[in-house]
Specification:
35% helix, globular, two-stranded antiparallel ribbon, 17% strand, 7 helices, 184 residues, alpha+beta, homodimer
């Protein structure tokens, strides 16, 4: 990774990192998130599956709700029960969660094939890597990256954000209305 | 994300998550890593750029070296100085770091275009998303994922790990010797 420019390193808030760290960086919060991605929704399920103390669970669920990561709502099948469900913002943590998972799988000692295994629904094949894509969908390695002044971008990219992909890029599946309309 | 199967949720160690969390989840460690990706190598640089206390910096650098994320070696230009450089394992944290960054950029209030901006070296365009790829390079959303028993995979995928991509998949760039040979 080159760096013609350096980010303002003291000012973590400027790039919004602390929230994702606050949300995922703490061990119990992370385990609750992982359980949510595994389809758990109820307080008592988290309690028994995670082996977590009741007060800590209550505290961490509250924090995840405060951050808009989980929604707290009555269970449609039994209105007296409360359900915790991932919001769209919560689902947006998935690439980071899986990147951490894959790092762990690569570097844990004596790793053997995971079971259960995460697959894509269509082909039922184990998922590929969590990868950094270029604007046109190329997979980038760290050597392909550079940090540059915005003023040095090509004119057509002046207002472009990190994280955007060219329209119509092959294989790109997103949840936007545009994509839903295109698929019809 | 579907889940025909559930991971063993109590046993975080089984999927190697704690190491990545230990390494990245703590605020100062995260800031040191971010500074490393920005090209900082020396103790005194970290000290002045991050506004971190000397003893905390020393402790966190030591931990990152212990985890094999940073290498500690004499500066080739001045053998009395020590350099801290990202190892290959350290660079493997980049997808997770960038996924957290992009999450922050998406959800921080009043976000405006970042400057400096992370680009791909070839096109000097802002990078695209950190994305979950299928075995064949398709970009997957959370709705495309499922957690299944390994025994239910197609026969050719029985020994396949998560994180592998089909050989020759378009756009795939990796650092392996095989790729280097193929590029010649």
């Amino acid at each position: 990774m080159g760096s013609e420019m350096r980010e303002p390193l003291k000012d973590l808030n400027a790039c919004g990192l602390p929230e994702a760290l606050e949300v995922m960086g703490e061990r119990w919060s992370f385990m609750i998130l992982r359980a949510s991605f595994n389809g758990l929704h109820h307080f008592e399920e988290f309690l028994s599956e995670l082996g977590i103390a009741r007060n800590i669970l209550s505290n961490r669920l509250g924090r995840l709700v405060d951050h808009g990561i989980l929604d707290r709502e009555p269970d449609p099948d039994d209105r007296r029960r409360i359900e915790y469900r991932l919001t769209e913002k919560g689902f947006d943590l998935l690439p980071a969660m899986l990147a951490l998972r894959q790092f762990g799988q690569k570097y844990v000692d004596g790793f053997v094939a995971t079971d259960p295994v995460l697959v894509d629904e269509r082909d039922r094949m184990p998922v590929g890597p969590v990868a950094i894509l270029a604007h046109d969908g190329r997979v980038l390695s760290h050597a392909d990256l550079n940090m540059v002044a915005r003023a040095s971008l090509p004119p057509e990219a002046k207002d472009r954000q990190e994280g955007e992909l060219d329209p119509g890029t092959r294989g790109w599946i997103d949840d936007s209305e545009e994509a839903a309309v295109a698929a019809e």
